[in-house]
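pinging the channel bc i need a second pair of eyes. not urgent but kinda urgent?? the chain im working w is below, pasted from the shared doc
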Amino acid sequence: MNLNSKYFDAIRVKPDKDRTRKTDGPRCAWQGCEKPGTHPAPRGRNHEGEYFRFCINHVREYNKSYNYFSGMNDTELKQYQESAVTGHRPTWDMAQNGKGEKDRKTRAGPRNVTDPFVLLGGSEGPDSKNAGNRPIRNVERKSLTALNLDEMASGDEIKIRYKQLVKRHHPDANGGDRGSEDKLREIIQAYNYLKSAGFC
């Protein structure tokens, strides 16, 4: 085996000839430096996509003093931060196309949607649903009766009464007696129905 073969020479860690690629690129942009500019550095605000080319030592020096926001006052800085939320893209108000704030507030939302955060334009909170805004159906009346409540009960009253009745009728609270298990099942079903109907 010939160890001086050109094939062995090509795969050696340190070949005989220096095969490292010579950089024929631009020179370092630092004044007075003759080294190749192998490292890009951003030019700054309003020059996005444009770069200086520096050698490794001068790019480190440049990065220490680089400040994208230099020259901006507090108002411009605040506007930049606010527009950064949307990626500096234009946005429009939700009430465009001739529909103003008044139209948006008076527009009726879907009927069977629970709106606890009053997003659909209503002015009342979640507990006012039961205060006569809509007629109470038979199933809802039965569910309220199962919880020993009247038709004007608020959401908080329903939750409190549900917790009390579950504690009273649960077999664990009655020494393992399963005699009131049917009543417990009725209470749970009534509460789940009222919850799905938006009463609590």
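so The chain is about 35% helix and 5% strand. and The radius of gyration is 37 Å. — does that match what u expected or am i reading it wrong
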